[in-house]
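Sequence only, no structure available. Ideas?
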Amino acid sequence: MNAWLGCGAALLALGVPPVLWGAASGPLPRRILAQNAGGTVVALAVLLLAQGYGRPSYIDLSLVLALLGPVGTLVCVRLLAEDLAPGPPRAATAVTAGCVTGSVVVTAAVCAATAPGRATVKLATTGALVALGNVIAARALSARLVEAEDESGGRVGPGDGPGQRACPCPGGQRTGTATDGEAAMDGHRRPRTAMDGHGRGDAMSDDLGGSG
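Reply:
I predicted one. Tokens follow.
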């Protein structure tokens, strides 16, 4: 076993268990982030194994993973947008930074060990796609979580009392809200208005009776 195979095996051994744990437990945003990190780990491991076995054809598999990983993350964010809880997942920035740094380091090492040519261009492209895909997926997930937080804040604002009804307006603006006290006052006004109507009716009946 050469150094490339050892690094690939170590990356799989150290990266896959945390990814599986994150994808199988915890809130939905963390699971989406974990599955995206899992695609990155496998793609980088395939690059190392391709160099270790001397099989340039394995790079195509890594290239496919680099393309499908972020796409799958974007699809999950799109389809599961209503189920995403507000607030970014824990260590989201650290995970994204680790994936980008790992892709840069692995790609640079493999490119340095490969003779200049078509294979080097393919390796550099694969590494760039892995790093860029992690950034795009993380930004899309963070943007959707911010939208979810704004939507939840628009339903019940932080200053709303137990009897206030929030207007379903964008941005959480409450225009035309009514409190329990106002509703109760409206309820008390209605009977008085009805009584006033009956009083006017009785007065008109007395006038008609007197004139008759």
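The helical segments are 3-24, 28-53, 58-79, 92-113, 118-155, 180-211.
Hope that gets you unstuck.
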